[in-house]
Design brief:
Layout: H1 3-14, H2 26-32, E1 38-40, E2 42-47, E3 56-62, E4 65-73, E5 76-82, E6 87-91, E7 104-110, E8 113-118, E9 123-129, E10 134-141, E11 148-157, E12 160-167, E13 173-179, E14 184-189, H3 201-207, E15 211-215, E16 221-226, E17 232-239, E18 243-251, E19 257-262, E20 265-270, E21 278-283, E22 287-292, H4 297-305, E23 308-315, E24 320-330, E25 334-336, E26 341-347, E27 351-357
Length: about 375
Amino acid sequence: MNWRFLLYTLSLFFISCSQAYDGSDETLAHFRNVFIKDTLMTSSYIDLEKYDILEPVHAIKRDGMFYLWHTTSYDSIIARINPKDNTVIQGVSEGQGPGEIIPGISFQIWRDTLLIYEANRTRYHVVNDNGEDLYLSDYREISKDPSVGFISKIHLLTDGYIIQGIQQGLDNAWLSTYNNENSVTSTIAFPDYEAYEGVDSWYIGFILSGTIIALSPDKQKIVCTHRSGGSSIYFGVIKNGNSVHEVKRWNYQAPILRKVLLEGVEATVETRLSPMSFMGLACSDKYVYAVYAGRTIEEYGITEAFQGDHLLIYDWKGNPVKHYLLEKPLYSLGYEEETQTLYGISYDPEGVLVEYQLNEEGL
């Protein structure tokens, strides 16, 4: 069976009904019992429709400008917006020819370089900006371990990389780290949910394909979570530039799963009554910022369920610090240290870019 067709088919089951969600939220209870939440108001609001960007996926702010990965058109999937003069540059086509990319699965800043990862060619590309156009150049190839069937998330480390995907050769591995010789250096296990007992790791890997990974500015600490598949968050330290060791892990509420028959084969999928979890992560030296949804597709629909209006702030030991309600829910999250602002994509109902100003302490 074609891989893309299989993912599409499984996604149809993902919005099928099953047992009811009881409405409790262990993630918010972790904060609600101790800290008072305030509403954080937007400090800036950019309507992306006026730039012909209708389906933004992720935003990165660099040198006062926003770089957006979007799926509005095959002809241009990356845009650069300068909010000071309201100008936009579009570039990089989706395809398999020279200078094109398909599909992109990771958009990140690494050592002041803007990178996008291409799953088909297992390669990172540099997104270049010459002031008039955006274009790609090769950065590095990741020759993945043959046991890894598919990479759905990847992030560079100082002396290696970390991936999430279908990892049949690594039992119970949610994430695995590799050195630059492509040897496994450490693994992070799947969240310890009773719902996952007896479920093949292939299906758990798919359910957790919305994994989010963020590193501290010094690249010595890491935090990982996932949009669906239950609510959990992992805090770790990075040793030797490529090996992750746990500091704290919170496994909050479990996912709601069901078994279905797919072309005569039993498969395990998540249902539309399972709450969505964390939508974005960003980090400072002191804090981890996490946008949390806690919404179900059954109640909110797909677009609204994948936006979070709770900003949960942890320290790097995994302790809860503060809980804000956000004026505009976010689909993604970024942090700019120089201005102490958080930013991200929201759908209102079309794509917009919003910023939230933190205080001098980053709270």
